[in-house]
Model the fold of this input.
Amino acid sequence: MIFLVPFSLLLTRCSDRVSGIQFNELPPDVTNVLFSNNIQESDSLDYYSFPYIYMGGGVAIGDVDNDGLSDVFFTGNMVKNKLYLNKGNLSFKDISVGSGVEGDGRWYTGATMVDINLDGWLDIYVCVSGKGKTKNQLFINNGDLTFSEMAEAYGIDDVSTSIQSTFFDYDNDGDLDLFVGNYPIIPISLGNEFYFNKIRENNFESSGHLYRNDGNNSFTDLTHEAGVQNYGLTLGVVAADFNEDGWQDLYISNDFQIPDYFYLNNQDGTFTEVLKQSVNHTSMFGMGVDASDFNNDGLIDLMQLDMAPEDYKRAKVNMASMNPENFWEIVSLGGHYQYMQNSLQVNNGPNQESIPQFSEISRYSGLATTDWSWGVLFADLDNDANKDLLITNGIRKDVNDNDVIKKNEFSLNPMKVDTKELRSQPLSNYVFQNTGGFKFKNITRSAGFNSKGFSNGIAYGDLDNDGDLDIIISNLDGIASVYENKTENSNHYLRIKIKGPNENPNGLGTRITVFNGDKMQMQELTLTRGFQSSVEPIVHFGLGQNKLVERLMISWPDGSIQVLNDVLADQILVIEKDIEKLVEGQESRYGTKHNFTDITNKANIDFKHQEDLFDDFVFEPLLPHKNSAIGPGLTVGDVNNDGIEDFFIGNASGSAAALYLQKEDGTFIEMEGPWQNDKEYEDTGAMFFDPDNDGDLDLYVVSGGNDITKKDSYYRDRLYVNKGGVYIELANAIPERTGSGQVVISSDFDLDGDQDLFVGGRIVPGRYPYPATSYILRNDGGKDEELHFTDITKTIAPDLISCGLVTSALWQDFDQDGRPDLVIAGEWMALRFFKNNKSGFEEVTTDMGMEGTSGWWYSLESVDVDRDGDLDIVAGNLGLNYKYKTDENTTFEIYANDFDENGKSDIVLAYIKNGKELPVRGKECSSQQIPAIGHRFSTYKSFAEADLSDIYGDNMLKQSLKYDASTFAHHWIENKGSEKWDMHQLSPRSQFSSVNDIEIIYEDQDSYPELLLVGNLYGSEVETPRNDASMGLLLKNKGSGEFFTQPRNEIGLMVKGEVKAVRSIRLGKNGSMAYLFAINNDSLRLLSMD
Done:
């Protein structure tokens, strides 16, 4: 059944509109909203004795009197709660006195509205913290603008110190259950052991609590039985069906070292905690969360807030350096990888175990740092069909001021700082516009969010019924903010009010999807969002220029699906389940032409790359990332000439490499060989080739690593010659190489009929970023033991000797003269082109127009992307989802010099911001490497105000080795002929991580090439979130040089880990194609593709 409420009847306020997302903060004398969440500090009540003191209160929006206008409720910490009745025209009436909702002096926190007693009137459930009475309360709506407190009667007067709750039907029995997130009162900033002892103790009162609705206004606590009893410092909770199975799950955002909890619904009344299997890293100090499909792919994503400042000076003064020992202790104790930044988790869909797989992309999206943030909401603010983002911000006093903390570190109680010494800096909230392509633009100022203060709870609703979303914010020590949405455009909207079954009258958990052409949007109705707040129980869709919805699909909580066609825009649509409009199932929106299946076990492959324990940062504390963990090398070829492909996989120092022979049935057996006795080497690169032209494949293995305690022989490459099916090592066939390598490629560059070599130098151990030596090795001929190579680099390619930190290379005849030319790439390097003249190699990078391409390149592949008859290049870089950034006007920089003149090279990473060259690392880390910095800059504030020249000195910087990176984006480079090239960025999703390797896929001989990309960079220093968003990516070629992706869960490509190499391998003699994934410090995986 459908009820239509036309736009013309709902419009109660007419006002001038403006273009672009625009809000007008209405003054209190217009709104009559005077609520101010004021707090009073004292010697016995401050942040150090009561960490809740600056957390503020919540906001709940809903129509409590059923007059068609959404009303507003505020919780007060040290003031009374307030309920404001919406009288129209964004004017409100305070009806708190006598209504029964003001409270009794408790420290109220979160609030959510719900019709819990099923009488058609919204009730209000409030959470309570504090040091006095802590039982939560339930205000039952009497239908006459009065409420009766009945939490104890319902059995949900949770006695723990609570922050927020959410109502959802966890057991799919039709009624609404309750989860309460709790935050026990404990001293702040205690050691890891304290927190993890609390986790091990797992006291019931310190956990969040789950209450099952038994009907008849009665609830039963099933926390333990349901599997959700875990110690938490919970600041955010959201319920949603993350894995598409029709059952709602729970995400719990926790503060400090306590890991988040991700409870996956088992469909039997219990949950399983799956955070580590689902999410690669999280925020360190988890604040508010929201869950919504912001990229319109039909999967629910997640946004979590933290407290990392955007402002450089605030960051350097208020952010403590991340101690590596502390970070890794958290991980070793069972915690997760937690970083001090916001987290935007993109849902890739569930894996084969039905666990949703997320990629964290806050750095790519532009949402990583918003200071001390509390509440976050996804909402389409301009009705353009893309969900924008709102964030509340501000801490009453800068309790992390390092200068004040340092001043008090030797006091009798170093954790008790005189709060009068702490700065108080009001901050503006944030508005981010969703610009598509996983990107958000900060439009705070232009959107009218100019007021500064200390904001906490936030909620949205169409308060004036004009078809767009208005905003209410609760402020600490300031009057609440009421923002009228004044955006002017010609976009349309559709608002949907669900009339659910008797036990769930607001239809919580209902999923609504709108389709127009090939575009879709999806929302799931849940009210608790952000921080301590709940939104109005109406689903709001912006429709852009569409005047109707071609197809509207309602997925009811009981699993039934209802479809409406050609629904007019610009109305509130009240929907009740209509049996006649129910349909069976839901067709997929995507094809499943490619299908990857993990067959590792079936193929009898049991290999794990096992990294040795070496800490690069002990010797080079300011490295941007580890250089000791860049393997394993992987290569494929038919080593025994049986017509079936085999493979070799390297290992780290201390563990043996392996060569696997494939049998006709597609299974593998391990072959013995001399590499099993070469465990001391780090196998970072490998290549099968036939340098002696005897018709079988020999093996070259590159040695790498960064252990400066090892002798030069540790970095010796190895050549294993295939002699009658048995491999032997040739000790003297290749010249001694003392640097650390990663790449080797072969080609007959001198056209004498045998395979010569380029061997790239990766690093000088312990001397990053000084260039390593690369080599051209000429094949002098000889068979088996007589095989010999000579280093002729100085003679024919002197520019290659110190060409940089080489990670990848390829031979390609780019000038089409019949001689293979050379293209190399690496860290802090441009894509460098070397033309093969008859007399040697001449660098022509500038002639090719590629001199401005410096980056952190990790992979190259040669392929005719556009099928125009010449070979293009695909180049994998660091990606755009990383802490380090470049743009059109600025580069990312590194300096190396002995800055403190102690005989050791020091590293300085830098970037340009607002025309000022600044260090990446803070005072503490910089002083660790160069102690004089700590003496010259006695305070964090003085360090924050200095530029790079102030800190290190102009003369010393000018004398330093300096590199810069101008792009971190992945590209395909189009061969335009006449030795000219054009750069094209690969698709947005490919930019989520580094691309460490590339494999080309053809559906058939007439198709355009597709790209299989693998990546991730786990070795970042601990203040930089690791690059871990890749799960492998298949880019389909549109034929015009543009690529697109299919959903991962529909093609089965979900390879997690730091994948260093991928190679295709055919199963059997004429079987299907499969792909080997070599993963650093993890098991090798084999995936077949149908």
